[in-house]
Write a structure and sequence with these properties.
single chain; alpha/beta; Alpha/beta knot; 5 helices; 5 strands; globular
Length: 159
């Protein structure tokens, strides 16, 4: 299985980069995992709704370039489903069982994801109804994907 984390923008803080690198390394024991970080569109300090919508459309184009046809795509968004770790593991197992060899986890910029991109995703997933810093949410996502594969493979990490 191939796992692609497609996240708009680079992580600025070294400790978040190190945490993501650690989970990426751990995931390597189960799957082939990679991270793509397309550059977000620069917006003014107080963008209008139209400017935000246009930026999200442009960012969606950059994200789509990273998604191979025929792959399973998960859009990370606040209005998505919340799943337990076990339920996420079941979703990933089901995707593999349906013949998908690649799963993409898509994380938008600070304004989120384009509505068309979200509607085209195979799954819309929310980490929580709470709001988290973008960088922390990426670490949490990678940890949960690692945990899911630990569950799938009866690993000791998930208790």
């Amino acid at each position: 299985m191939n796992i692609n984390f497609i996240a708009m923008g680079k992580l600025k803080e070294a400790y978040f980069r190190e945490a993501c690198a650690e989970y990426l390394k751990r995931l390597g024991g189960y799957v082939s995992a990679r991270v793509s970080e397309p550059d977000p569109v620069n917006l003014p300090q107080k963008p209008s709704p139209a400017q935000i919508e246009a930026a999200l459309r442009q960012e969606a184009g950059k994200i789509r370039e990273q998604i191979k046809p025929g792959s399973f795509t998960v859009a990370m968004c606040i209005e998505g489903k919340t799943l337990s770790s076990e339920q996420l593991a079941q979703k990933l197992e089901a995707a593999a069982g349906q013949g998908f060899s690649t799963v993409n986890f898509v994380v938008g910029s600070s304004f989120g994801l384009d509505s068309d991109l979200k509607s085209q995703a195979d799954l819309r997933l929310s980490m929580s109804p709470m709001t988290f810093p973008h960088s922390l949410a990426r670490v949490m996502l990678m940890e949960q994907v690692y945990r899911a594969y630990s569950i799938i493979n009866n690993g000791k990490y998930h208790k």
